[in-house]
Amino acid sequence: xxxxxxxxxxxxxxxxxxxxxxxxxxxxxxxxxxxxxxxxxxxxxxxxxxxxxxxxxxxxxxxxxxxxxxxxxxxxxxxxxxxxxxxxxxxxxxxxxxxxxxxxxxxxxxxxxxxxxxxxxxxxxxxxxxxxxxxxxxxxxxxxxxxxxxxxxxxxxxxxxxxxxxxxxxxxxxxxxxxxxxxxxxxxxxxxxxxxxxxxxxxxxxxxxxxxxxxxxxxxxxxxxxxxxxxxxxxxxxxxxxxxxxxxxxxxxxxxxxxxxxxxxxxxxxxxxxxxxxxxxxxxxxxxxxxxxxxxxxxxxxxxxxxxxxxxxxxxxxxxxxxxxxxxxxxxxxxxxxxxxxxxxxxxxxxxxxxxxxxxxxxxxxxxxxxxxxxxxxxxxxxxxxxxxxxxxxxxxxxxxxxxxxxxxxxxxxxxxxxxxxxxxxxxxxxxxxxxxxxxxxxxxxxxxxxxxxxxxxxxxxxxxxxxxxxxxxxxxxxxxxxxxxxxxxxxxxxxxxxxxxxxxxxxxxxxxxxxxxxxxxxx
Length: 524
Prior knowledge:
Structural class: alpha+beta
Strand content: 15-25%
Distance between the termini: 34 Å
Shape: globular
């Protein structure tokens, strides 16, 4: 297969996935009902022998996966039942070497999906031999993962990234996906030098406590996009999250305005009006041309940063409050004046911030529920509907060498925002955070490409849109100008957020009227 043909195949699959349903996903002619996929013919068989060999065999495509515990398997039992994903048949067993563990291989009756579970009753010293480890798997010529060395997790065809799902496929779009199904923030999926693939816990974690359990999911299916839908739908069923419809909130349903990097008013405003006055003038301009905006995004400029507490230095935040020189009456007063819901950006916490001494920290973020309660309370009073967490890949990344801090950071953030009815957007996430988003019903959107959307961003946007869409969130292109017809089209077709950063008086009314109704509702 030529590189051009490969690119066409994958880009077609990726584009088709931008707005694909993420709960379940039809398989081989099945119809999705009630968020659960149903197939006309799904057959996955599981076998474990007393010598510790295990086998998983899919019928369509005809894929076989096999591995060995490296020791005998005992207490082998077969059972059937149903869980949140669907009806299943399962083999459970135990082994004692190199460490005591109980294992299960659960295959679903109406989905080409298998979940592997390993539990360490007495704990374990890590790294421990991961389960599953497949020394036999289909030898497919192509693979993709999502990078953890660049922001927004751009697609890579060369490197197998440990915290990313592994997607393997052939020229006929027969595909399998292997990833963690729990412990996303500390998981590690790898291929050995001998070609075996496995999923377990990051070796940076040195101790697994008593009772620790880890799950891995394997999906094999004809169709790359279909495999993503099945894989992501199973993870969402396990967590209980249902992706919101693409018009569930005013921000998803309607046209909005952004002031982030690449926008005309990013760290810039009309000196005669001030920043608040400039944004009110933006609102009035779009209202005058009968294309009303439904929300306003405030980027990193809106709060004081660094030891100088300056709004115009894009470094760690000093306080997550409206800068007094820009908003002398405060955030709430500005929101009442502009009379629009707000999306507010956040970066990491500066070492000079009083938050460092007041709240429990991990690197440059807080893992303290009290911090997140206070932040959510402040922005809720200021009319904020979406909290945007930026720099998740590095500056806003907690300590990664324990099992607790990354989870505490995102869990407490999500819980505090949910308690106030605030949705979230992730920005610059790593693959692990795309996966973690399946846990949070209020994580509605994710930035999936670099600052200032334009043609060089398209490939990463398409592929990573498929990832985030499969996992229950809507993709956001980032800001562009409405005169850029291709960018307008791409953002509209994504079915996610749609917003521009035009200078007052410079919008393409022709382009905007092609993609929305006169009341600002996007035609999706």
